[in-house]
Specification:
By secondary structure, the chain is α+β, with helices and mostly antiparallel strands. Helix content is 28%, strand content 35%. Strands 1-2-3-4-5-7-6 form a seven-stranded mixed beta sheet, sandwiched between helices. Bound molecules: acetyl coenzyme *A.
Length: 161
């Protein structure tokens, strides 16, 4: 019987960014300049979280706040936008992605007063779509050719009430 992995979810810090960017590079095709990560860390620091296990970063979630027309409720509202989430390949399927999402959703609602949260995900990304559906996200629409390689995205959203 394996021992349960111990990890903490905490706010990201500047010195975490190298490990965060490394996890992004090996996990996703969507990469960003360092200044993009730094901007999000500075501006929405309470919704940029990392998972830490044995003093190393094993996952992250980066979000921002926008104002716009809500996808699920009527009218304009404050929206949380999940820009990127990834867990290091050696640490997947241990509940870390779920923990990162749950803490980010709580903070988007309670600290940033977001009424709804949304994200884009490749239509082929079954692990992530399963995770989002388990947490109550609904597929709202297909964004055709959303990604640089031509793949479509689902826009998925969830109310935070
Ligand atoms: N196949 C099918 N379902 C999966 C898989 C998989 N390989 N991995 C996770 N899930 C689903 C399952 O429903 C799972 O629940 P279960 O284990 O009880 O069956 C549920 O997600 C929760 O799993 P966690 O262990 O909490 O998730 P994990 O820590 O593995 O992280 C993540 C999930 C973040 C999607 C991870 O697979 C990953 O880093 N993938 C590569 C990066 C990526 O695709 N990120 C999302 C891009 S979209 C965006 O960033 C907005």
């Amino acid at each position: 019987m394996g021992t349960e992995l111990k990890y903490v979810i905490r706010e990201a810090r500047e010195e975490d960014l190298d490990e965060v960017i490394n996890i992004n590079m090996i996990s996703l095709k969507e990469h960003y300049p360092r200044s993009f990560w730094e901007d999000h860390l500075r501006t929405w620091n309470k919704a940029f979280l990392v998972a830490e296990a044995s003093s190393r970063i094993v996952g992250y979630i980066m979000c921002r706040i926008e104002s716009g027309f809500c996808y699920l409720r009527r009218g304009w509202c404050r929206l949380g936008h999940i820009i990127s989430i990834a867990v290091h390949p050696n640490f997947r399927r241990k509940g870390i992605g779920t923990s990162l999402m749950l803490e980010a959703l709580k903070r988007l609602k309670e600290i940033y007063n977001a009424k709804e949260v949304y994200l884009e995900v490749r239509v082929s990304n079954y692990p992530a779509i399963n995770l989002y559906e388990k947490l109550g996200f609904k597929k709202v629409k297909v964004l055709r050719y959303y990604y640089l390689d031509g793949e479509d995205a689902y826009l998925m959203a969830k109310e935070l009430s």
